[in-house]
Amino acid sequence: MMNRRNLGRVALCTAAVVSLGLPFSAFAADEAPDALIKRLSIDVLNTVKSDKAIQAGDLSKVIALVDKTVMPNVNFRRMTAAAVGPGWRKATPEQQKRLQEEFKVLLVRTYAGALAQVNDQTIQVKPLRAAAEDKDVLVRTEIVGRGDPIQLDYRLEKTPGDGAGWKIYNLNVLGVWLVETYKGQFAQEINAANPAVNGYDKALDRLIETLAARNKTNATAKG
After folding, report:
1. Are the CB atoms for 27 and 181 separated by under 8 Å?
2. Which side of the chain, N or C, has fewer Cβ within a 10 Å radius?
3. Residue range(s) defining the domain that contains residue 49
């Protein structure tokens, strides 16, 4: 169980998640994953520090930032599928679309609160332990500048084809993996609907409704 101090550190740490995706340069497909994370992290932290609206938690600007810079560099479909678990394969295309939309809003609102706390932090990327041919790697970093260093690690996969390059598909904040955390929460909602009896269709609708309600509550609280 996290205490209030650690929860605050988690919120601060999630601000660095936006470092997942400032625009790629022409050489990005060949860029090492640790170099990519370092370059993007430095750029985004500098951007946030200079944008008073983002620091104030302007949700519209955060959403625009995430849509433009983060999502192109994240395998968000994989993240959502992993968080939903076995039920994802049973979901209709429309349910998959809704799950991704509501999950995205949930995370964006986390970014909005976290970005307001960015001040004098910097990022340190630890040496990458991976072979040149590896297609799945772990990039370990620390956010430093206030108190103890904050652990923030990234799981990336190498994608082929036209969109070749490294894509993030999971995050570890203070020793807790983001996808696994939500997977446990989502499983509780799905299981509460007793899919073995009522079917996964109704169970997934329940999960979507729960996420939508949480996002609506968060929006009201922010407003």
Report:
1. no
2. N
3. 4-222
Which class for 63: exposed (0-12), middle (13-18), buried (19 or more C-beta within 10 A)? middle
Read off the CATH number of the domain in which 137 is found: 3.10.450.710
CA distance 145 to 204: 42
Predicted confidence (pLDDT) per residue in 41-91, tens digit: 777 777 777 888 877 777 777 777 767 766 777 888 999 999 999 999 999
**Which tens digits make up the pLDDT trace of 136-183?**
999 999 888 777 787 889 999 998 866 678 888 998 887 889 899 999
What is the pTM for the complete model shown?
0.78
Number of domains in the chain: 1
CA nearest neighbour of 32 among 171, 153, 152, 132 = 132
Write out the chain in H/E/C secondary structure: CCCHHHHHHHHHHHHHHHHHCCCCCCCHHHCCHHHHHHHHHHHHHHHHHHCHHHHCCCHHHHHHHHHHHHHHHECHHHHHHHHHHHHHHHCCHHHHHHHHHHHHHHHHHHHHHHHCCCCCCEEEECCCCCCCCCCEEEEEEEEECCCCCEEEEEEEEEECCCCCEEEEEEEEECCEEHHHHHHHHHHHHHHHCCHHHHCHHHHHHHHHHHHHHHHHHHHHHHC
Supply 142's token pair. Answer: 């620390």
Bridge partners, residue 143, by sequence: 123, 150
